[in-house]
């Protein structure tokens, strides 16, 4: 495995990111202690003992202890309510073997000058025989779990490459599952999305993108950009040199980078199997239990997606 696939955060990067929200060694320690104590007092929640993970939740919650508490509560609740995405984290399973050859999701090794992490997502093949977005959703969360322990950045810049997508993929996409995936990303992990760049968008997808943007909160919808033809505007926002070779950069090939990430995921096999079992026990929750209906409503409904 390439040790530099997710380099250890530099002291300078940690300082810059912390300064944005007034975080210091002292107040981080105090806040993490408060959150940890609160967790031990919740009869329905497991005890999160990794201070590094708690610090990153605090960071994603903009240094708000109360928001961090609510986020952790939602994280453990969703692990019980959305097992199709937040369970089955087994890198030795058949689905993972298929997914690793079908999709790619690469957090690029080098941060932007603003200390943002760029992630590229796409398909390796146009073959739809085994295409199931749920596999990609699982991998996204598994990568997020690793980043909650190893990464340190201000926010995420997402690149969606539509190369290899066709109309044949659309019947496999379920909006209720997209809704659950979105809630996991935004409510459980508090992912901060700075921008979404869409590349190689086929004509049939442009209308769907407009429809999708219409159900987003204005703040997030405004951060979606579709690039076609001239890439100069894209390169002004995402430094060309940090990108994979296929996008004109110097980071190596997509397959090499993704192969390193697959190996990294496999190295976390035991951790995944242990931690996928940690979820809220809603029968022990003080007050009203959280149910799937509370969070997602009826299968046909699709509330506006939010962004922090």
Shape: globular
Q: Which value, in Å, is the CA radius of gyration? A: 19 Å
Number of helices: 14
The main sheet orders its strands as: 1-2-3-4-5
Give a count of the beta strands, DSSP E runs of length 2 or more.
5
Which structural class is indicated by helix and strand composition? Answer: alpha/beta
Beta strand %: 5-15%
Summarize the structure in short:
This protein is of the alpha/beta class. The chain has helices spanning 11-20, 25-40, 51-60, 65-81, 83-86, 94-102, 133-150, 175-188, 203-214, 218-221, 232-237, 254-267, 269-275, 292-296, and strands spanning 103-107, 117-123, 156-161, 193-199, 224-226.
How is this structure best described in words?
- The protein is of the alpha/beta class.
- The chain has helices spanning 11-20, 25-40, 51-60, 65-81, 83-86, 94-102, 133-150, 175-188, 203-214, 218-221, 232-237, 254-267, 269-275, 292-296; strands spanning 103-107, 117-123, 156-161, 193-199, 224-226.
- Strands 1-2-3-4-5 form a five-stranded mixed β-sheet.
- Helix 8 (175-188) links the parallel strand 3 and strand 4 (193-199).
- The chain is globular.
- It starts with 10 loop residues before the first helix and ends in a 12-residue tail after the last helix.
- The model is unreliable at 299-308 (pLDDT under 50).
- It holds the Pfam family CRAL_TRIO.
- InterPro entries: CRAL-TRIO_dom, CRAL-TRIO_dom_sf, CRAL/TRIO_N_dom_sf.
- GO terms for molecular function: phosphatidylinositol bisphosphate binding.
- Residues 136-255 form the CRAL-TRIO domain.
- One of its GO terms (cellular component) is membrane.
